[in-house]
Amino acid sequence: MKPKTLFDHIKQITEKKVSKGYWESLSESEEKSFSTYLVNRYLSMNMNWIDFVNSLQKYTIGLLRPKEVYHVYEEFIPQGKVYLKWIKGKANKKYNDKLVDYVRQYYEVSSVEAKDYIDILSKDEKGIESLVNIVKTYGVDEKELKRVMK
pLDDT at position 67, please? Predict the structure, then answer.
């Protein structure tokens, strides 16, 4: 039998509810796969449960052991099949390293801040024009400019 994962624990909380000895049947490594933070995050993806999960969060992180957190959720989360969609963060855009370096030097900021500047400036025509002017101040010719601005 394959070891239980975080998703098995969440499924047990939301769907099964018949096996009262579920937690007791887990091995030590399966118990460690129960991450209170991730369970809270997943359960809060359901709009009907978000307030409940949020109100319990101050107790579930640190005060209660994972076993106790599991039993609280098992008792209070309604039974039924539910789809909990994970919300992903925005993907980082990949910029030309030379462009990042030019903006970094021009504004005298870190590379991370330079990428933020490029994000902001590349949203409209005036901003793109500003980026082109920044690159041109470093003596870049038109051919190289096109390559840098890709």
Answer: 93
